[in-house]
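Protein in question kept underneath.
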Amino acid sequence: MKFLTLLFWGLLFYFGYKAIRQVLGGKTNETRVKGKPKGKSLNIDDSQIEDADFEELDDKH
């Protein structure tokens, strides 16, 4: 029975700590990317990029 009480209080403190840390943390939710990229960069010049022309289609709904 002591174990369940200890587990309950531990979970309560853990979630309370997480909630307070999120509110008072002041950090922005930035995505952190770790590791090396799998793909290689393309090394394309701006002179090699062309704009595409699109035609607007009517909705049939």
The two ends are 63 Å apart (CA to CA). The chain has one helix and no strands.
